[in-house]
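Example with several molecule types.
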Amino acid sequence: MNYYQYRKKAFEYALKELLRQLSQFALMISTLFYIFLPGLVAGLFLGLGKVVQSDSVETANQMMVAYLLMQTLLLFVLKPVILDTPHRLFHFSLHSGRLKHLVADFTLLLVSHILLWLSLVLAFAMGWDKLMRAPHFVAFIVTQLSLAVVLLYRPQAVVWALGIAVVLLVLGLSNISYLVVFNAIVLVACWFKPLKFVYVPSQLNVWSFWLVYGLNNTWSLIWRMVIGLLFTLGVAIIGKERPELLHWYAPMVALIVLLLWASMCIKTTKLVQEHRLFWLSLKQQQAIVVTLHAMVFILYLLSWCLIVFVLDFDIFMLLTLLFMPLLQWCAARRPKSLAVCWASVSVLIYMIKILV
Amino acid sequence: MIDVIKLHKQFANKRVFHNYTNQFMEPKCCILGENGLGKTTLFTLIAGLDPYYTGDILLAGKRVTALQDYVALGCDKIPFPDFLTARQILSMTSKSWVCDMPLTLAKAFGFEPFLDTLVKDLSSGNNKKLQLLNAIMRNTPYLILDEPSAALDQHGVEVLCHWLQSFSGQVLISSHEPQPFLDVGFVTQHLFSTEPVA
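Resulting structure tokens for the full complex:
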């Protein structure tokens, strides 16, 4: 077995493991959205269409940021699979040079980069002539690739660049200029120091415990926030084109974000259970459970406020807030029923909306 | 003195104690028993951390409503959240039980430099020291230490034995290498025997 064969085998194995770990989540998502999956793929192409051609420069720039954010989220999950991170030192023990490693990394990155495939499919479908009339789309494809490569080796640059890119949206730069500036930032940010939030209070209580937990599990928070933000931005863009449909979509965004935050109770409840004796030994078992649910509720409330701010208030969105405790209870006590519970709440809210 | 009377404890598929009665009279008692007999389970019950049992546990001949108020337990079965530092763990115990941070003992253990280390980064020996400090700092009249010398370095065992010598309450330990404890006055007793081992 040569090095490349090993990397292929390691990639397949790690991917299988990842899918096994995510099987419950993937099953939940596919159960809930399976009838919408073709629509979801069509929606992704529609979004890329907005990047190629849009009524306003701002919408295209927003769409590009949303795609780059989404690919960062997906590739961040796949990064250990692509790099075979747990056995990286083993790789270095096999070769003195880095060329073979880089070739293998890059090949596996291309295989894993689904959003790049979509862009390439669209580019091929457009044909050479049309593609030359939309040079910013070519620049976007190059950016997709450059950002993905940087994510592998300099993730802090991606965080900086995406953060600055969101701020740059207000400048209203042309699409090409925006992408050139973005790539320049990515390049410069490669030499920036990684962002690190350190909070180590010497005194802890049940509230600050969850704060420390959050800072140590930022990924759990970030992916929920980013997915919520992407849905909110997506619906906001739809709302610009079809404002009369916004009141149908807005509660759905609130419901999806409700599911995302409620599902956080699954992992955190498991953590509390794993350390049950520790909390009992402190006589804080009840307090830690109460603060856990209060924290998750507050996080959903903050996301809900953002949705209301961007998409306008709707009385049915308020209902989602009222159902949050039920979903939290379900996630904590009956995690296998969370999907059914969420679907029932969603159907109920839309039934009321139709009937009232 | 700790009395266990007609104890019945069962996990989903395993009965650990059935009609178990025993008395631990010695102020310094080392409980012996093969792996898997139920020593740790008994310790968590006496420490009031597991309310799911039938029978009685008496302290000094009296039934107490909150065993936890009187008994502190140091045990591998109490995993600490691994993203906290040792100091944070101890501070939570200090706050919950209104007791002082065990800084002097931490220094004696050579644990002071590791107080700001995350639990996940502690070696198994230092993790054991954290367990011991976390239990000892509560100053309860009853102290239970499950395998206190496991993974502990020689110096750590000496410090612990020295501290236990001066402890005025009753202490139960379990150990598969009891000699250092026997040297400081511990008496061995089998888990299923009411008499101390001669």
